Amino acid sequence: MLLKANILKLLKLFASDSRTAIVGYIVISRILLGGCVRYLTKTTIITAFQIANIPTPLWATTGLVLLSGLLIHIRSSKSHSLPKASLADFQIKLLILLAQKHEWTAQDIASVFEVHIEVVNFHLQKLKQRNMITASIAFNRPSQWSIDQEGRRYSIEHNELR
To answer: Fewest CB within 10 angstroms: 2, 5, 31, 97, which?
Structure first.
């Protein structure tokens, strides 16, 4: 019973700090690899408690917090902004066409550029994902596509509208 209480106490202590968690992992793996409790001698328990009770240095804690913050910032900036890569030539032509007239259907655009409608739909969806165009949808009518503010911004910044 005392051994079980010591193991539970040791596990609770190890879970409170990352460094102690590593020590706990090592101790527990030694126990499991041995297949018995022979590694849990009094000396092992005392050594594990001594390592677990050493305070973490302030510089290590500060560094860990800063690295965590940097990781969160990098991940959130990747997920919130799409890459600023240039658009495909066809997508630029689509933006120029949509800027000239307010609404176009995919079929109209396909006939203007003399391409298959699926090519047009593919590029329209890509531009929509980048918030450059919008579609107005009505019952029993094909979607009407028009340029959005982000598409205008891109076109102006890249001197596509003359």
So the answer is: 2
